[in-house]
Amino acid sequence: IKRVTTRSLQSMRDRDEAITMLTAYDFPTARILDEAGIDVLLVGDSLAMVVQGHDTTLPVTMDQMIYHAEMVGRAASRALVVVDLPFPEGQIEITRSIEASARVVKETGCHAVKLEGGAEQADRIEAIVTAGVPVMAHVGLRPQNIHVDGGYRLQRDTEKLVADAQAAQAAGAFAVLIECVPAAVAAAITEAVTVPTIGIGAGRSVSGQVLVTHDIVGLTSGYTPKFTRQFADLGSALGAAATGYRDEVRGGGFPSDAESF
Ligand code: KIV
Ligand code: NA
After folding, report:
1. pTM greater than the 0.90 cutoff
2. ipTM score
3. Is 221 known to sit in a ligand binding site?
4. Which domains does the chain carry?
5. Does residue 39 have its Cβ closer than 6 Å to ligand 1?
6. Catalytic: 17?
7. Do you know which InterPro entries this protein is assigned to (predicted)?
8. Which of 227, 226, 190 has the alpha carbon at shortest distance from 205?
9. How many other C-beta atoms are found inside a 10 Å radius of the C-beta of residue 5?
């Protein structure tokens, strides 16, 4: 199978073919998503929330990102694998961002990094790309900025968002992720750049879509945002498997003779 690359994503945008992207944090899940033909797997820092159980994305460390990226990198044979720079690796000294990005490609077999920001991060994006690591920029709602923003909210400043995306593109970003903006604003951003735009809560007028896998399969408990959609209920399936096993063990039905030596 041919590997998805930053180049093939660009030609998908040029041909108006929708790009699909989902988060992945471990080997078995990444293998299933890769075999399903998802173009881009994201080892998102959302793992702090959906895997580690934190309230925000801030606590996950670079070493933990590397640990998960190794598993996903090992599993993906077709998808391009992008790894988030966790807070604050994408915001502090530029040399540290380059080192973190280099770790991703050297230690995990993954292909690119994503960092939150646009215009203010342009020099950093350029430095990382120059060092040899492709960068996806992330504009709009920036979860790592939650304490500065005072919560997760819809981003509506069209002029700023367009400027962020254009600055990221000019700095060499191969794609721009757009989170939680009105559909018309995402359309304007997409029109203002030539690289692929990947939306989450950004409507349909973008080059592709991304969602958090745990949300679409019913593995996140409690609140899920309006922009997600549940395509399966693995939470219920897992619960049913556990109670089925429990009942069989308690009732003496497991293991059977056939399951014993
Ligand atoms: O960490 C994450 O899951 C993300 C989303 C935008 C998908 O960055
Ligand atoms: Na993220």
Report:
1. yes
2. 0.99
3. no
4. 6-250 (3.20.20.60)
5. no
6. no
7. Pantoate_hydroxy_MeTrfase, Pyrv/PenolPyrv_kinase-like_dom, Pyrv_kinase-like_dom_sf
8. 190
9. 14
